[in-house]
Amino acid sequence: MVKQTDAVSETLSPLESAILEALWQSGESKVRDIYQKIKGKNPCAQTSVAVTLDRLFERKLVSRTITTGRGGLAYIYSARQSKDEYRKSLAQRAVDRIVERFGESAISYFNEKYQKRI
Amino acid sequence: MWGMLEHLFQGAGQFFADPYYMAAVTGSLVMAIAMLGASRRTEWTARTRSFLMYGHLVLLVLPLVLFAATLSCQEKGICEVGVTQTLLVVVPVSGFLALLAGLWIVPLLHRQRGLAEDGPLQQYVRNQAEGIGMRVPDVFWIDSGKPQGYSVGGLKPAIFVSIGMGQLLSRRQLEAVLLHELGHIREGSHALKTLSIFLHAWHPQALPAPQQVVQDEEAKADGFAAGRQKTRVHLERAKKKVG
Which one of B1, B28, B65, B194 has the lowest number of neighbouring Cβ atoms within 10 Å? Predict the structure, then answer.
């Protein structure tokens, strides 16, 4: 059995990971909703959540739409990929990098190592 | 090139020998220094201080323009004086005009990036501006999740607030930010900040550091916002939230 670690928390900062987890659980959310959801386990300021969400948006990990509310405009954020899709894309990128670097050696290693499992 | 230098030296000799020109140059430079000194007075409004800084620049350039105008061809045929005159006049004057135009062009560029606000924020700013008899600035949203707020002056003043800022602050805190920016527009801080950066690079010892000018202007804008809201609580909380 191959030991699995949480790929999401390994590739993102703790706050980024918490925000994405919250979005995967709740679906579309505003900054304040996400902050309320994560502040118990991840003590941080609401500003940090807003700035981190903006960074995740720039990295194309979350999408956002603008809505008009009572106080003006607001963003509604959602994750671009499901958790499984995200994990899969991470795995793809990691494997592609290894194959790119080691070529045939990497492919034959994967064959030998995982043939039985497939 | 040599022809230009020759004309310059010849022209300079004649120019400095003329007592009327010398009086004009001395007067201009003395006035320029006096205006620079007066522009340091922080008790005056930013608009007055900016005017004095512009005046200082104009009076610095004036002797050069006067000198260029006195240059003339000493001989018939191809004359390089035109090139010399053009360089002497066009370079400083265009620099001065660019500085002036920047104050109008930059706001226009910012406006193109913003999303026009015609809701409660614009209404609030309109009420406040009309209440103190100043021109109503337009309010724009910036499409960014980071908390940001700033304003531009010039002919068409505007206030910009990021959507991230709007989501982060309470209504009263957001109003405090709008009032702070309104304070900058009312005071005319934008021109003063730009000019002090430019002039400080030109002669660093003669002016307070631009950081000092910015600090003074921020304190004045804070005072304006607190005065309008009759409390500093919302402004301070907004600052604490935004960091």
Answer: B1
